[in-house]
Amino acid sequence: xxxxxxxxxxxxxxxxxxxDEGFEPDADAQDQFExxxxxxxxxxxxxxxxxxxxxEEDDAGDDEGDEGEADQVGRRPASRGENRIAAATxxxxxxxxxxxxxxxxxxxxxxxxxxxxxxxxxxxxxERLALMDPGERAEYIARQTxxxxxxxxxxxxxxxxxxNDKVAFDALASRNPAAAKVRDKVESYLQDMxxxxxxxxxxxxLKYVLGEMALNRAPKAxxxxxxxxxxxxxxxxxxxxxxxxxVSANGxxxxxxxxxxxxxxxxxxx
Length: 270
Known about the structure:
It is a single chain. The chain is 86% helix and 0% strand. By secondary structure, the protein is mostly helical. Helix 1 (2-15) runs antiparallel to helix 2 and helix 6 (183-195) packs across helix 7. It is elongated and about 155 Å long.
């Protein structure tokens, strides 16, 4: 702005008719001065605008810095217990992930071994069949087919029996609250039995589970009965004594005093 004022003053000093009466101003020079002044005005405007933008950016940065500092001040640092809990949680998650990966590796290894054994078994069977004559081969295939058929029928029968047994047990549980309460225990115990190669109806397993629970509760029931009996005896011992004996004793005492007075007055003349 100051430069613009200087340029305007110089223009008036040079091209003013008062300075030189016979001099006529050069129009091209005057246009050049005006263009230079406009250009400088634009530069000044750009400079002023850039400065204003920088000031606005600085203000915005200061505001953001203040907000960040306020957030840091308002955020409470984690305590030692919270840090330990977070570390334990991370450790548990890592251990769980490692265990899952290990189980997956074991499953892959087991599956590979099973497939290899099946392949070897099939290969060995093919070699045995190749060494047999046609009659032996036909008899062997018939035996294998019968065994597979028998196994399939046994599985079908077991599935049918298990479904009927479960329906009967569910009906019993709907009528008996005790059976409904231990339904999950019955199923768990039955699965353990089947893993060990045994089997039983669910109602039989229910009786076993209920009997085991009753045996476990028996010592507690005996202890509770003993405590109740002891409390009853203690209440009997601290019962309030009767005052009937004192009343009778006082009555006898009053009767003896009256007899003594009559005896003293028998020989007295009035």
